[in-house]
Amino acid sequence: MKYLLSCINTNWNTGCKGAVLAHRPCSLKVDPQIRVFARLSGCYQSPPIFVFAQDYLEKFYQLPRNRFQSERKNSTSVIMEKLREMQRFFGLNETGKPNQETLEMMQKPRCGVPDSGDFMLTPGNPKWKQTNLTYRIIKYTPQLSEANVETAIQKAFQVWSNVSPLTFTKVSQGEVDIRISFVQGDHGDNSPFDGPNGILAHAFQPGQGIGGDVHFDAEETWTENSSNYNLFLVAAHEVGHSLGLSHSTDPGALMYPNYVFHDPSTYTLPQDDINGIQTIYGKSPSSNPVQPTGPSTPTTCDPRLTFDAIATLRGEILFFKDKYFWRRHPQLPRVELNFISLFWPSLPDGIQAAYEDVDKDLVFLFKGSQYWALSGYDIKQGYPKDISDYSFPSSVQAIDAAVYYRRKTYFFVNDQVWRYDNQRQSMEPGYPKSIASIFPGIESTVDAVFQQNREYYAFDLGAHEVIRVGRSNRWLNCR
Question: Which positions does the entry assign to Hemopexin repeats (predicted)?
Fold first, then answer.
């Protein structure tokens, strides 16, 4: 069953009451009993929202399709429990109700493999008996050349062979272990695709017949870059299923079910995925005693947590770390962890400095010798630019931190601070100066204003003194 997500107006509040539908009519087949759940759960959204949530839970969380044949109260309890299970998987508030953040998560493009239960052809934990596996691309997509498709698929397999004893060989005839094809709609495996921007692909566990096979939705737009859906990234995820991996709750893992873009040219398999594949097949038989490691998703309340950059944006506070950033809103208790690439696909990972110019209503982000300007959450045209625009000498090739105060911008570079006059658009005479001379109490380099090592410093720029010191993760509501 397919639903039109554009029928749903995403301007909901954070609870259940008040959710509305767009005025455009939606051609949804509504189960007349769906209103039972609406009444018993205390929510009052129109039926299409519940139908959409019901369909999602049936596909990915084993919600029985005939649940309304049982007693009403029990069936409602099952639906609410499945919603809690889904919310728990994605780290959402476990309300058991299809609130705004839950519905937004359900709308994200993703893999078609369920998040819970067995997506299995055989019992147990399936794995390939052999480590030398073969594959063939049965049907290509016309959106990319065959050579580009083959390169993306080859790189997807290599992601896993780099960290395990597995090898993969493309063959053109005879029996193979893994068959790859681009298909659409109902394609004969009881898992039909739903058209653009929904389920992107799915794969089957190791085994005979259809086991190990990978199917891509031919109606999606497949690319080699950040637009639409990058074939390499989706293929690498699906190959993980072909090798026996299930979905991960780690939002930084390749095996996380929702699609997130990462730069393929610098992609490194995260540690969560390395641990998973090596649990099944063992480590790479390399002569190098040091096994490959990958990046790990930062733990929000890790007492050792440090930030790369911090900036405000129209009342929110953004904390950057590697390829992630946290959003803290003063009116919301929950701090949200996101990928940088999810909001700004053209930005690099590892932002080193950031500040908000409240007079221009712009946020500036720095990495290396380049910087970008954000208007709201949009990158302004004409960026990136070179930091030489700020009158830095050629010896300055990167900035550690920055902060804006009374139309002056303080830039921290190693153990020095520079002060830029934003009105005159020039660096002030007499700078740089040592950080300690301008900010007594902060004796060494600054990671993010005002964070030093694992602690943050509240500094009174008018009085020129440190007024409070605390752990960095207290900004993220950690105690």
Answer: 298-347, 348-394, 396-442
